[in-house]
Amino acid sequence: MIAKKKPTEGAAQPILIGLPRVGRGGRWFFAAVMTVGLAGGASYAVWRQVREHVLASGEYQVDPNNITITPPAPWIHSEIKAEVIRDASFDGPLSILENELTVRMATAFSAHPWVAHVERVSKRYPSGLDIVLSYRKPVAMVEVQQDGALPVDIEGVVLPTGDFSPAEAEQYPRIGEILTTPAGPVGVRWGDACVTGGAQIAAALANDWNALKLFRIVPAGRKSGGRGGVEYAFALYTHTGTRIEWGRAPSTDLPGELPAVEKIARLKRYAAEHGSLDGPDGPQQLVLLDSGEIVSQRRGAIKPLPKTD
Fold first, then answer.
1. Would you tell me the crossing angle of helices 260-274 and 193-204 to the nearest 10 degrees?
2. How far apart are CA 86 and CA 121, in angstroms?
3. How is the chain split into domains, by residue range?
4. Does the N terminus or the C terminus of the chain have fewer Cβ atoms within 10 A?
5. Under a CB-based contact definition with an 8 Å cutoff, are residues 260 and 201 in contact?
6. What is the pLDDT of residues 26-59, one digit of tens each?
7. 104-130: pLDDT as tens digits
8. DSSP 8-state class, residue 198
């Protein structure tokens, strides 16, 4: 006779659970599940064999003519779609059935220097794509050596120079006395707070730049305070050489600095009252005080800035 073993004290004991009986309905259900599973597995195996053939099928291949993008802004002369497709170097034909196609296209278009954001990429069956883009807008030309200039947007991103004729470039505010060079290629931020601040001022004055007969924005020293402990001040020049002490860039978070819209309103009022920002005897210096008052000073023998042809 075999003695039953007593359970070891302290050891975890298994919990016995009752198993349900499988009736006819249950057996039918399990059989159906097994059939579907086998069919799914077979379908996947077939798909693996024909996948490349289907993806390469002409019916589902994306022709560049079937790719639509947001119409480029008037200042853009580049063939954005053609350049993206050329530069992306897609390996083989594009199929609308490819899972990662929208991601790949978004990545390719976001790399173009004129594209600020890729808002959406949508598939259009059987073989089309609709791509919604937002574009960068030039706000100023940064003076560089040898009488050249590089266009930038409000964030200081360097834009393609080939889209601007010399006459078109002359229509934009100039940012001068920049001692750095761009930190990267076209489509990358310049990497200089003086360029970024100047671009912000140019954007704020865009609608009034010509009416106020302004010509140039330059850094005018550094002031303590701000996010980084120091911020740049800026000055504006008219075509005849009058200098306007503008102050910090519009993005400053320092209290007491007049908002850009208020500074512009004061300059417009001064120009309306005096005929222009220039003095009756030639170039002068205008100081925009934090109180909003504009103080004028004679600048002495100041040579006017050369006018561009």
1. 60
2. 18
3. 64-135, 140-298
4. N
5. yes
6. 555 445 545 545 555 555 454 455 445 544 455 7
7. 999 999 999 999 999 999 998 888 889
8. H
